[in-house]
Write a structure and sequence with these properties.
332 residues, mainly alpha, Arc Repressor Mutant, subunit A, Four Helix Bundle (Hemerythrin (Met), subunit A), 3 domains, 3-stranded antiparallel β-sheet, 11 helices, 8% strand, globular
Length: 332
């Protein structure tokens, strides 16, 4: 009859071997002599001193587990890509006038429209908040930042400093093909003005306005790119985005205004063609001051009034789309 104590010790030893990562393969004691090393010892086996059974020590197979850090990086990378998409969508809405100063941004509606969770949307909003484009109000929500008058002045002063430097540098180093392209952009502005005048409309709108703004922005971007200063281009893009948010591009463009702006661009192009950096800077800064005065006039006219969101925001011009792509692209 088997002693119950031996059974208890038997199962206890099984637990001991399994605890150390060893699987017990049990052999009959009568076969133990055939498993020896020739000197009475056991090779790769161990004899249980209570039961006389032999335990074959087979190592537990190692499991290959993916490190948690690697899995986490993939999830973080996916979230970052979605956050970038949400950021770019918000940016385009601001550029086009789909979102205006003081307007509330709904995280839930934005996430549903983009087909993603609210986590990447929040990340995009936090990024824009750090850039001063949106403001989060406790117990209220997120709003597009409404400007102060002084901020509009500061934005144009920055543009004057940046573009004044850029046009001087560009005047000295522009290639002949770039000088020709600069003049073509001036000609495109003039053609848009001609079509606007023939329409007999009081204000420039529709296709003539799109062509006019496209050539206007392309003119400035070409000068900045010719100066070969990416930081200046980045600051220019940021200031233009803020101008779009502030509604500075929505001031009335009658025939007198657009003709005067074209004349200033034409004078800058002529100074560049003559390789005269002083004249190029003088005319460009004069153009900036004219634009700032128009923006401030529009701001003062809307003071205390809430800007309504644009129901059908106009599409971005080709030059604006190219500028956004340039600023999002890798540094060369």
């Amino acid at each position: 009859m088997v002693d119950p104590a031996q059974i208890a010790h038997f199962w206890g030893n099984i637990g001991h071997f399994r605890q150390w990562g060893q699987w017990g393969q049990w052999k009959h004691p009568a076969r133990a002599d055939r498993l020896g090393d020739g000197n009475g010892g056991l090779t790769g086996f161990q004899q249980n001193r209570y039961t006389g059974c032999v335990i074959e020590n087979t190592p537990r197979p190692k499991r290959r587990l993916q490190p948690p850090a690697a899995s986490g990086k993939k999830a973080t990378g996916a979230t970052s890509k979605l956050a970038q998409l949400a950021y770019e969508h918000l940016q385009e809405q601001l550029w086009s006038g789909g979102l205006t100063a003081g307007e509330k941004i709904s995280e839930a509606r934005l996430a549903a429209g983009l087909g993603m969770s609210r986590t990447p949307v929040r990340e995009a909003i936090r990024r824009m908040e750090s850039e001063g484009v949106v403001t989060q109000v406790a117990s209220s929500g997120t709003y597009v930042t409404a400007p102060e008058r002084s901020e509009i002045v500061e934005a144009y002063e920055v543009r004057m400093a940046i573009e004044g430097f850029a046009v001087r540098k560009a005047t000295r180093r522009m290639k002949p093909a770039q000088v020709i392209e600069l003049q073509k952009l001036c000609d495109q502005m003039r053609e848009a003005i001609r079509d606007f005048r023939q329409s007999k409309e009081p204000m420039m709108t529709g296709e003539p306005l799109r062509r006019y703004l496209n050539a206007d922005l392309g003119f400035h971007v070409l000068l900045l790119k010719a100066a070969d200063n990416r930081r200046a281009l980045t600051i220019f893009g940021d200031v233009n985005l803020r101008s779009a948010i502030f509604g500075c591009r929505s001031h009335q463009r009658d025939l007198h205004h657009v003709a005067w702006v074209w004349l200033q661009h034409a004078r800058v192009a002529r100074a560049v063609r003559r390789r005269d950096p002083d004249a190029a800077q003088r005319w460009l800064e004069g153009h900036m001051r004219t634009s700032m005065d128009a923006a401030l006039e529009a701001y003062d006219a809307r003071r205390g009034k809430r800007l309504e969101p644009v129901e059908n925001p106009p599409p971005l011009t080709e030059a604006m789309t190219a500028l956004i792509a340039e600023l999002r692209g890798p540094v060369q």
